[in-house]
Amino acid sequence: MTTSLQCLQEHLCFGGQVGLYRHRSEACAGDMRFAVYVPPQAQHGPVPVLYFLSGLTCTEENFITKAGAQRWAAHYGLMLVAPDTSPRDAGIPGEDDDWDFGTGAGFYVDATESPWSDHYRMYSYVVEELPQLVARHFPVSDRAGIFGHSMGGHGALVCALRNGDRYQSVSAFAPISAPMRCPWGQKAFSRYLGDNPETWKAYDASELVRVSPVPTSILIDQGTADSFLETQLMPEVFAEACTQAGQHFTLRMQAGYDHGYYFISTFIEDHLRHHAAILCPESVGHHKREGHHG
Questions:
Q1: 231 vs 108, 149, 185, 228, 234, CA distance in Å?
Q2: What's this model's pTM, rounded to 2 decimal places?
Q3: pLDDT recorded at residue 294
Q4: Which of 112, 161, 166, 178 is in the most buried spot, having the most CB atoms within 10 Å?
């Protein structure tokens, strides 16, 4: 597997560094991009890594520029990694025709249907290839968490539920919680994975949690003014499945918030604290004590 990594931009931020990178991906058979925030604590040794999966139409830049996460990543000593949401310019006919399928809409699955199966292998990219690349080039420890938004919230839940040994913490903002039951998921799954719904279950968090709950608690924030809430996101389906499976979770319905980054930036501190409490609890305790004595 290639180890080449091209740095496109670097910016000092809260004492750490934001970098945007490009590399040749074997999983996706083409160039892929991702963003990294390296916190100042990494100057003194490896730090835990937290992966963020973005939603439909997003690139690797949306989260890193809009969420305000770097302040809290620096506070707790967490590295942030945000990959792009799909391959781009793969040369597949129709890849740019729809905003909710193809380019910018990889859905974090390994496609099995032609012509998508040659490039659209975002699940393997996120779970296998990207962490190996990050481990080679950045000072990360063996502690990792994952979270995401909308399509990326779906991806984060799926990656965590299928890999309980890889991710010690998980959370999501407005995730597509039951993709087999909603138009976005049905459109993507039928084209990427084929017409047999049984094969879709491997990428549906509400199905996966019934058979493979994880030992950590799952945090989900969902805005009540989200225009996609009832038709596409269906958090109540996931909550019911968690309850039946004995999965510990917290679903917070945030009154008046919509689907965008104003919502994410409002609650991003809570999510980074949630992950830090699991990945590096000493940082949370330390800062709590500082706040108490301040």
A1: 20, 16, 11, 6, 7
A2: 0.95
A3: 22
A4: 161
